[in-house]
Specification:
About 65% of the residues lie in helices and about 0% in strands. The chain contains 18 helices and two strands. The N terminus and C terminus are likely disordered.
């Protein structure tokens, strides 16, 4: 089959692909107003909801506790001097507060991941068997419902809140495997980094927007309203998803014929022809897959440590108020979102122009996205009460982590696009473990809330990151594996 690949998208030139078996040339479909980029934007909105519902509790936790529920913004219990802040409005603060010790807080913050881990591999399997659209849709809808019930559960007791958070995790656990299955049918190989970084930037935006907005809602109203606001945002997404999204280009009623042919032709040599058959033995013994597992686990240890405990660090160590806390906690993820999008563009540019093989791109971006965060995370622990430097180093750490979005994070689609959802389910199962145990270990190590204790937490995260980056560099691969297709085809390796 004669095949021509295009240069960087947006150069105004359509380079033909020869459609196998028909002899007619299929031009690259424009990105503007296309169905595949529409899917990227709507899935980005979906991941915005996923992460907004996941992380808002980390800000509310500061406001749900008796020792932080004060009429003023002063935090006399913080290690560093408290920051001046406007007096908090006294009206409307009718929500309950609780006497949870640091160990209980750790279990509450980590409970989401106990449900989340259960549906990773089943999510990938079910998405491949029944289609990813409704699996992802109902998974997020279930999370929305339990989010709306969170204030009731908290009033009933910590154990009820832990149970509700675990049920939210079960709903969200299918989202990433389902979306990877969706992209296996929608993303042309040389547009993967672009499309997936657009899609998954929603996770970063969900964090960036929900953290400061949660802080503002807690400041002016109370913590219960946070769950109601983001729950409503999730309901709106589900309605749009139900009417506008379809499992594949061939089932989309409004896609242009040009785009449909472009997508299906570009994927013709990558998708398995043995529908319904899953080579489980080959999958679980695949060295490139286990390289992704180790990298994903390692990266998530740092990511989840910051995701769940950064507001606590901002409050207990740096002395920021609930209002300032959300805004400053969001800065690292804002940088992460920007770097993720830029790295996606650059990664696909390197692959399209044949300057770098896929495996080199994935490993290089993973190294930058894992070693960089480790270095600056450790450095942040030695800034003492230099607030500006501490926030700057934490922001740089998370920002560099965004580069890994074009590294190991989408390598599943390189090595086995037909089984990408299942592979993501496997790697994300292991990568969920840090979310389960990381907050518990971190809070157990920081009972006295000293800077030295937090340095230990940062050192552990950095060491795990370095280990993961090293092993992925040794064993990662960029080609479609023989067990994933009958005829393996390499794109840029």
């Amino acid at each position: 089959m004669e095949r021509y690949e295009s240069d960087a998208e947006g150069d105004g030139q359509d380079t033909p692909l020869l459609h196998q078996g028909r002899g007619d040339k299929v031009h690259r479909a424009p990105a503007c107003c296309s169905s595949r980029y529409g899917l990227a934007l709507l899935s980005s909105y979906g991941f915005f909801v996923v992460y907004a519902l996941r992380v808002n509790l980390s800000v509310e936790m500061v406001d749900m506790l008796n020792n932080t529920h004060q009429s003023s913004a002063n935090h006399s219990s913080s290690v560093c001097p408290a920051h001046a802040s406007p007096a908090r409005p006294k009206h409307n603060h009718t929500a309950s507060v609780y006497d949870w010790d640091s160990e209980t807080q750790g279990w509450i913050l980590g409970s989401f991941f106990y449900g989340y881990i259960l549906t990773q591999i089943p999510g990938g399997y079910l998405a491949g068997r029944f289609g990813p659209k409704w699996l992802m849709g109902f998974g997020i809808l279930g999370t929305v419902v339990f989010t709306l019930l969170t204030p009731v559960a908290a009033d009933l007791g910590a154990s009820y809140l832990i149970a509700v958070r675990a049920l939210e995790g079960i709903g969200e656990g299918v989202t990433f495997p389902a979306m990877y299955t969706m992209w296996a049918a929608w993303a042309p190989p040389l547009e993967r980094s672009r499309l997936l970084t657009i899609s998954y930037i929603g996770a970063q935006l969900g964090t960036v927007i929900s953290l400061p907005l949660s802080g503002e809602i807690c400041f002016y109203l109370d913590w219960t309203y946070v769950f109601y606001v983001f729950g409503f945002v999730g309901l709106v997404w589900f309605i749009l998803w139900a009417f506008l999204v379809f499992d594949s280009p061939n089932t989309h009623p409004r896609i242009s014929e040009r785009e449909r042919l472009y997508i299906t032709t570009s994927l013709k040599n990558e998708l398995s022809t043995s529908a319904g058959y899953i080579p489980w033995r080959a999958i679980v013994t695949s060295r490139p897959l286990w390289a992704i597992v180790v990298a994903h686990f390692s990266y998530n240890w740092t990511f989840y440590t910051l995701l769940t405990l950064l507001p606590t660090y901002m409050s207990d160590i740096l002395g920021f108020s609930i209002q300032q806390n959300g805004m400053l906690s969001a800065l690292p993820y804002m940088g992460c979102a920007v770097f993720a999008v830029l790295s996606g563009q650059f990664a696909d540019y390197l692959r399209e122009t044949r300057q770098c093989p896929t495996v080199t791109v994935r490993k290089s971006f993973s190294l930058v996205g894992m070693i960089g965060p480790a270095v600056f995370l450790v450095a942040a622990g030695y800034t003492g009460c230099n607030y500006t430097l501490a926030v700057t180093f934490l922001t740089i750490s998370s920002s560099l982590g965004g580069v890994s979005a074009s590294g190991f994070n989408i390598n599943h689609l390189d090595i086995a696009p037909s089984y990408a959802g299942i592979l993501l389910g496997i790697t994300n199962t292991f990568a969920t473990i840090p979310g389960m145990v990381g907050p518990v270990i971190a809070r157990a190590l920081t009972k006295q809330n000293t800077i030295e204790e937090w340095q230990t937490v940062f050192y552990i995260a950095a060491a795990i990151n370095l280990l993961g980056a090293s092993l992925y560099t040794l064993f990662g691969r960029g080609t479609v594996q023989p067990w994933a297709v009958h005829t393996s085809y390499s794109h840029g390796d």
